[in-house]
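[INFO] parsing input record for Peptidase A1 domain-containing protein
[DEBUG] input buffer:
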Amino acid sequence: MPMAVQLVLALAAAAAACLVSPALTAADTVHCSNPSQDHGSDLSVMHAYGPCSPLRSTGHQISWEDTILDLASRDESRFLYLASLAANKKTTIPIGSGQQIAASASTYIVRANFGTPPQPLLVAMDTSNDAAWIPCSQCVGCPSTTAFMPSKSTTYKPVPCGAPQCSQVPNPSCSPAPDSTCGFNLTYGGSSLDALLSQDTLSLAADSVPGYTFGCLRQVTGSSVPPQGLIGLGRGPLSLLSQTRSLYASTFSYCLPSFRSVNFSGSLRLGPVGQPKRIKTTPLLASPRRSSLYYVEMTGIRVGRTPVPIPPGALAFNPATGAGTIFDSGTMFTRLVAPVYTALRDTFRRRVKGTVSSLGGFDTCYEGAVSLPTVTLEFTGMNVTLPVDNVMIHSASRNVSCLAMAAAPENVNAVLNVIASMQQQNHRVLFDVPGSRLGVAREPCTIA
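[DEBUG] output buffer:
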């Protein structure tokens, strides 16, 4: 049985084309040091766009308030993307669909190596996407100067048109004979991409996966793509889990550090070895409308000890419509369908004594010191009590705290409740696909 693999994770606080970081106050000043070296199957972790990140844009810092508004607005686009997946009647999983999340999402990144000899990239990790795609040399419009160079790899090869993988990409096309290689193009939001379906060795820590299938980007129009690509941890046929089933047994877990952390801390652990033995779990559910999403049955919510009066049926899982609750690493703030969020918000406001204000998409904010309750998410067989740090966004400079959840956008037929990364931070979240279970256990992994 393979050794569990620890992978580097870090929060991408904004989309690749519009990277923003909270402006630092004097109290927030940090001194960057060289990242710790990887050892064996362990890789170090850092905040993707924190003060010490190699992906951070140093010339554009904005206020805390504007950063939160930016993240919230991008989350809305992310939610629209997830809602479209849930409503999609197709059962095939399109490669490259993760590009759409970059227009919206704060994701975590992993250090991966492609090719022989290995070429390092920091790729976005997404539990709601399947296929991998990366910028390749001579890509027109790719947002990063770091790109994979196929000509430098002795194990690289394009995928021929007759290969089964070619039928799983959107808008496939074949190059003229004698090459007859498989390409595809994808349009979404304000961006579109063109890629060559490819195979090469993927290296994660000490493990190598020969013949890994991914999209090699040739042209990108627009600015909403992760700078160094994406790798998917969904359940579809082209995901990392599916392509490494014999190595990792379709099992992984992660602990996400705070998005404001500047140190190496959180981890992604691939494979059944080293996973927590004592952890409360809830059954994983599946919808034929979007088989890659990690659905669970949420049964209720409590604010402190007070049950939230959620309308009957508002949390129900419906595989036919795609309605229900998912865990997602790419959404920053939890989104709930309107009846559920309204009930939670009203209960929270009754529990907290203070004047309520708003900040962009956050409608429950407080100034000054207030007594804040925990929030418990209830699932079949498992309750997850979130401490205040997972419930509220804080501004030290303005002394403002906001409930870090929101309602689904009103302009869509929203059916999804999305448990997002803000609420998952500093927890070990286990995805056991063969055992059809998802587990959550408190595990601090943020170093201040």
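[INFO] The first strand starts at residue 5 and ends at 8.
[INFO] shutting down worker
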